[in-house]
Give the backbone structure.
Amino acid sequence: MQHFLLSARARTLSLKDIYRNGEEAAYASFWKFRWPKTDGAPVCPRCGTLDAYSIPARRKFKCAGCYHQFSVTSGTILASRKMTFTDLLAALCILANAAKGISALQLARDLDCQHKTAFVLAHKLREAMAAETKAHKLTGVIEVDGAYFGGHIRPANRAEDRIDRRLVQHQTGTRRVVIAARQRKGRTLTAVVRSEADGVAFIQAVAVDGAAIHADEATHWDVLHDSHPVSRINHSEAYATVESCTNQAESFFSRLRRMVAGQHHYVSPRYLHQYAAHAAWLEDHRRMDNGAACHKILGLAMAHAVSRNWKGYWQRQRLPKTF
């Protein structure tokens, strides 16, 4: 039997279709996902009235009640956009198709835009995707694990100049741990901390009382036994047993490592949480056809408020280096 991802059922949207359908069709898609409850009929974001008339020359609407002018992206994470709706929809399609993520440089080449534009657009979409599980809680069987990213110290050329990279005084301070909590047949939640032991509080916050947790033999997970039934797996003896297994969490880290090493090559610790959330979203929706995935991202972007982290990113101070 053919794998789903290899079948035609997984390919329901293509860049060819987006550009062939044109700007008006893309614009109509934004209407549909911005106002799904009214089947695309514009709703004033200020007073909530449905009585608004169109200003076609400016691609805007004017409320008949409060006279407020607004566009289909006003008040969303894509507010103040300058790209055409065709290019925006194409960017969503590219992001949905990239199983291991996509770098801002490659996205800029595909869309023929500046690297700055692609960088901020991709991060805005990652923020919208992460918001889908903002208050989510995990139930049932949860697999937890941690993986280290960043902090690489390049060895010196000459052997006599090389240092012991294991020592604290030689560390770069950019090494972080991504904690993954993955519910079987459910969602994957992530957090970025400085050490794996710091992730215990995150697991306790996202796992409901009574949820079964599978973890490795690291001693910092011992405190979870006080509030949850915990099964442990010793990876020096086996990768999985009948009683315990963390292979689904390892599967997520496999995708994230390939995303960081193969696509982005380097990820700053201040942005690592967004890449981790992006990889988690891709992992959770890997069996969704690309058209549905693209439209889901569009719906999340249209439902997300203006980003305080990314709006005007290049015109102001960047995100803090530490968290």
User: Anything to note?
Assistant: DSSP finds eight helices and eight strands in the chain. The chain has two domains: 4-132+309-315, 136-285. The beta strands are 52-55, 60-63, 69-70, 141-149, 176-183, 188-193, 212-216, 230-233.
